[in-house]
């Protein structure tokens, strides 16, 4: 059957698409809201990346650095008498690592270095105070306070679980030739970051009034903030000589 001109015109008219509706222009308020939304999404993504970096990646980097330094310290010890720390207490005053802190309640072994600056602590170690109060190293044999600090979050977070330490729990410090076994006797869950009395040779805030051989652990609190400080005090119970197999004291078995 032949197609007429009228049929063609009708088919063409029916097949033609209607013109698209005119696009409405966004008003100034809508433009601002849209731009603000995009900005907030971008900021949110950046903050998320920053949190991942701060709480995960810095831990990876710090643990790697601390592990490498710890291996150097133990290799140095393995060289025998006259290498590294030796028997001279003064030689322990080194930024390269003076020993290892073992805290079963926190489940970690921590390299201890000199100083509490960010440069030191960011390497995933604990540092002993040199300022504003100088720590008394147990290797000196003198009475005093072996005061230490470490990060609670990020950069290794070595004191992250400090809240798990209870009174009576052991804290052990390992040097090349001696185990120093402390017993936790007091805890201060919150104090001002400016409270340096907790670092005193006789930490009276812990309830002690006489000179002794003390250890103090300090870190930030609450978790993920640096508003206050969390404090744990211990007192030396005994020392043990390190044997050839480096058999740990019973508190660590």
TrEMBL record:
This is Class E sortase. The lineage of its organism: Bacteria, Bacillati, Actinomycetota, Actinomycetes, Kitasatosporales. The chain crosses the membrane at residues 29-56. InterPro entries: Sortase, Sortase_Class_E, Sortase_dom-sf, Sortase_E. Pfam families: Sortase. Keywords: Hydrolase, Membrane, Transmembrane, Transmembrane helix. Residues 1-23, 68-91 are annotated as: Disordered. The keyword Cell membrane does not apply. It comes from Streptomyces cathayae. The keyword Transmembrane applies.
